């Protein structure tokens, strides 16, 4: 694939990769866009748009976990809301199990809500303080009019138990629970209708370290037990590495790199991924002297008026003229490792070893599992 | 530098710049007495950094606010001693503490959006902080000083940004502005309470570098409070781990990460996924959740969550362990015999980290 590839090219390429992996993807996103119009001025005219999500394509296969990382404002949460259709895209296509759900009406979406659920970031604001746990977790049953074998109460109690909560707490209110327990309530609610796919938007970032690990393990167990597919959005690169099979890195509304976990963390090809990884503080005091940190200067540019060409060029140390004029397409390097950069890192020589060009990485993947 | 375990005799002429002795901060609430901080002691020398680590509710922020003299509610009961540069702060007059606050000791808060006043420009707030302690300074001089500080913390076009309001700054820039405000009077003690928690990793790295550079330049003593062990490893010379309002372990950063003594520290290290290690199949969380500070568990506050509590022959449920020196400078409060702890750590914990 060459540099002249347009955004349509990305779609076909994604499809090619999917055919290779045989199974039909559960979720396929093609050139997804969400622009928020900015109104203002004397005549309330349109003064441009915040390009929160600006043409991203990826797919999620059944049973896998795709992690999405990026700084705040890169559009990862908006993407999560578009995929769950809590918000309507302004362009592109979202397909769930082959069905186009991009512009479905609320009524036609309702049956699909059973299959796609979301876990929110803040366990304090995502639970109604006036409802008991029983009401909160039982709401999906009532809304979807799902009949349960032994009544809703029993089903809810089973769910609470599944998520590591005491089923006797059925009648308690959210304020009686700690942050970690509330997040478990949110998870129980998301799992009530046995969804096929769960979008988790920063599921652990509001929790303490020791509780974080409990919730990460819980998500892991539930995936194994119920065969769930996850789309996990987070800013913590070490958590994403722990939970994901594949990882996508977003910057200013675009995916800049997407690859299998091992490939991405071992051989990050995009300078931005490199910078992100090098910025993660590591709990090892001796490393602080010898590690080389790539310090990015400045802030993320405004999505109202993103830089021309490559969006990362304003902070990139490798930027050249071509970066300002041509937008790099998300091109495949090897084994499903896609990167949008004119000068990807470690491509000569160092990349070849340990990265067999072709399907999957049986050795790495097996070791990781 | 951390010296001596809890000694009641006060080290008045001690070399350390900040010395906290048996600090207790309790709050009288309708539900009962909340023992937020229950007997914490440490020392800190100029130019050194102390990291305080713990989960929410472990008393780390209350400790720092106590040092700053910010617990002025009638319900707060503070006892113990805080010596800052030879001056005792707990018993001092509020007015006396007020004159030190902002000048000798300054604080960087977690959330710069709520810590800054939305109604005043960033410059006005920095100028105010300066002029309160330098009444002789003219407005013009104070403004020059504010611009100089903004430039020092890396804000582009400081002469223009000085007139911006906090909402016009991005999160990272607000945090820089707050650091500028804290440092405008050259404080000799800087307390940073979760300075980077609200920030992205790339910005976090910038801010941590900035704090390190400024400390080298100004030679201040720094206390950094965080729940992120990665952040303390980047900055701290000494680390204090808090649990349930008490210090359970403290020591030099290198030894604490290599040979942690307390099972709670093991738990913290085991529950965080790490980029510098091979991928683990599962994380090893600490079971249960942090204790309520109204009903702190008897004996060792960590015993309900401790996997080794059984091995102390019941002492962990009844006796509160004292903070004892294990190796020079490294203290831990645990009933398990040191040899046994080292064995458990080497055999069971270290391979999983």
Order of helices and strands of chain A: HEEEHEEHEHHHEHEHEEHHHHEEH
Helical content band of chain B = 25-40%
Computed Rg of chain A: 21 Å
Strand order of the largest sheet of chain A: 6-7-8-3-9-10-12-11
Major sheet attributes of chain B = 8 strands, mixed
Task: Please provide the count of β strands of chain A.
Answer: 12
Structural class based on helices, strands and sheet pairing of chain B: alpha/beta
The residue-averaged pLDDT of chain A reads 83
Report, as a whole number of angstroms, the end-to-end distance of chain A: 32 Å
Distance, first to last CA of chain B: 27 Å
Give the quaternary arrangement of the chains. heterodimer
Global outline of chain A = globular
Helical content of chain A, roughly?
A: 25-40%
Question: Of all protein chain pairs, which has the greatest interface, and how many residues does each chain bring to it?
Answer: A-B, 46 and 49 residues
CA-atom Rg of chain B in angstroms: 21 Å
Question: Number of helical segments of chain A?
Answer: 13
**Nearest-integer average pLDDT of chain B:** 88
- List the secondary-structure elements of chain B in sequence, H or E: EEEHEEHEHHHHHEHEHEEHHHEEH
Helix tally of chain B equals: 13
